[in-house]
Design goal:
35% helix, two-stranded antiparallel sheet, 78 residues, elongated, alpha+beta, single chain, three-stranded mixed sheet, 2 helices
Length: 78
Amino acid sequence: KVGGFDGSPDAVAAIKSGELQYTVLQPVAIFSAKAVQQADSFIKTGATGAATEKQLFDCLLITKDNVDKYTAPFVLSE
């Protein structure tokens, strides 16, 4: 199987055409919101509030089974 990482519009088109089996969509809106929250916390308290330096966030797997839920660049509707 051939897959990719980023959930780009090109990858989604390749899944629809059968050239690619999957792509992993990174939820950049969640990453960005968390970064702003932690920056705000750091400015106010001197600590980010994060339990560890490295943090894990769930990504979304886009396949032929759910590719039609891909509603806009880098957006997968539930």
